[in-house]
Amino acid sequence: MKNIKNAQSDLVNDTCSDCGSYADIGAVIDEHDTQLVVSFTGDAAQAEAEAMSAKAKERFEEIKTEIKSENSEVTLLLNFAFSAEKMIFQLENGI
């Protein structure tokens, strides 16, 4: 633990002071993980997918969305410009 802290730049501290865990942020957040797939079922599935698509478009300018229907399942594909946007959207919407 001490060696890890000593090896870090003074500008970076990615070691938890409470538990001593070291976190490599690049290992936690994949910069290429920009697609979110959300499935809906039931009578309101199409409307729910459209509402979530509209919410994402309102929040993020460069998002691309696609809605696919197959049998009784509606799938919403959300393609964000950045992985951080995907994470923010998931947190804001409890996904």
From TrEMBL:
InterPro entries: DUF406, UPF0234-like_C. One of its GO terms (cellular component) is cytosol. Residues 46-73 form a coiled coil. The keyword Transport does not apply. Belongs to the UPF0381 family. Keywords: Coiled coil. This is DUF406 family protein. It comes from the Bacteria. PANTHER family: UPF0381 PROTEIN YFCZ-RELATED (PTHR38769:SF1).
